[in-house]
Automatic annotation (TrEMBL):
Protein name: Formate dehydrogenase subunit alpha
Residue ranges the record marks as coiled coil: none
Main subcellular location: other
Organism phylogeny: Bacteria, Pseudomonadati, Myxococcota, Myxococcia, Myxococcales
Naturally occurring in which organism (per UniProt): Corallococcus coralloides (strain ATCC 25202 / DSM 2259 / NBRC 100086 / M2)
Pfam families linked to this entry: Molybdop_Fe4S4
Gene name in the database record: fdhA1
Length: 189
């Protein structure tokens, strides 16, 4: 390639030659930039979702192809966020697809110093057994004055800020059925 052809292909020179000094037109484009397309363009489906980080409830669009997430962007039809996401919401793609994300249950035995992977079923069984054991050991049918209370003060539940009213309703029913009276959540929507 001759020096003259090389200089002609340089975007800065094209900008000045065409009077587009601020590079707002086609002069700043290269063959490479013309060939680029958003990865969302090849999506098979767009699934509506809600950002998992806080209680604002910003709308997200999850772009999927062949069962894999291509990208996650703000939902322009969301009345809450109108297509905008904060830096944490914009990083949801890395949260979901990041290679550093833990993909298994880790357990540290009592007195242990190392985490070990265990199957999800084993972890769920351990949680259920510990909840039952604690409930049975701390359940009160009556209080110190002889009043009927049917409760346990040995368990409590604090829901996260991303839980919606329906989820909080179901959690309240579950924990009330267990006799848990300390049930709170951080829901602000």
């Amino acid at each position: 390639m001759k020096f003259r052809d090389l200089m002609k292909g340089w975007p800065v020179l094209r900008q000045f030659a065409r009077g587009d000094s601020r590079a707002l037109g086609d002069t700043a484009m290269s063959a490479r930039s013309r060939s680029l397309a958003p990865r969302t363009k090849t999506a098979d489906a767009v699934v509506k979702s809600i950002c998992p980080y806080c209680a604002v409830g910003c709308g997200q669009e999850v772009h999927v192809r062949d069962g894999r997430i291509l990208d996650i962007e703000g939902d322009p039809h969301s009345p809450i966020s109108r297509g905008r996401l904060c830096p944490k919401g914009a990083a949801t793609f890395q949260l979901v697809t990041g290679t550093q994300r833990v993909q298994q249950v880790l357990y540290r035995r009592p007195g242990g110093t190392e985490w070990e992977p265990i199957p999800l079923e084993e972890a769920m069984t351990q949680v259920a057994e510990r909840v039952k054991r604690t409930r049975d050991a701390t359940f009160e049918v009556t209080d110190a004055q002889g009043r009927w209370v049917n409760r346990t003060l040995g368990l409590a539940h604090l829901g996260g800020a991303t839980l919606d009213n329906e989820e909080n309703y179901l959690l309240k029913k579950l924990f009330s059925a267990l006799g848990v009276v300390q049930v709170e959540n951080q829901a602000r929507i």
